[in-house]
Specification:
about 130 residues; mainly alpha; 4 helices
């Protein structure tokens, strides 16, 4: 997940620079506040889906006074919990990568944007 976080931050930074290049306004405050907002929304959705999944699989909470924890879950739960825990992040990561294939921001374009922005910033009187 670390590589995805780095890629996401890089895309955000490039988009802020590109928008400044296009419009003359920097939007990093809005960009990163929206990132925080969507992280919170996705955390809520993830928690809700996890709870729903456990409920649909017939999860049984273990009583703290129980002396044996073996065989406390249903066979359906035992059969599905591993694939859900392992495959869900894989599927989510693949879905996360798909939009990255549609970014058309070449290294040449990025260099041009950075050069133009540097020239604009150097010409501004403070």
């Amino acid at each position: 997940m670390g590589a995805l976080s780095i890629a996401q931050t890089s895309v955000f930074c490039d988009s802020v620079d590109y928008m400044e290049w296009e419009t003359g306004k920097r939007t990093e405050g809005v960009t990163f506040s929206m990132q925080t907002f969507f992280t919170k929304v996705s955390s809520g959705i993830t928690g809700g889906l996890a709870t729903l999944s456990l409920s649909l699989l017939g999860y049984k909470a273990i009583d703290d006074t129980a002396t044996s924890f073996i065989g406390t879950q249903t066979a359906e739960f035992d059969a599905w919990i591993w694939p859900l825990v392992m495959l869900t992040p894989v599927i989510a990561s693949i879905l996360y990568i798909i939009p990255l294939f549609f970014i058309r921001y070449s290294p040449e374009k990025r260099a041009q944007v950075e050069k133009d922005l540097a020239q604009r910033r150097n010409s501004i009187d403070y």
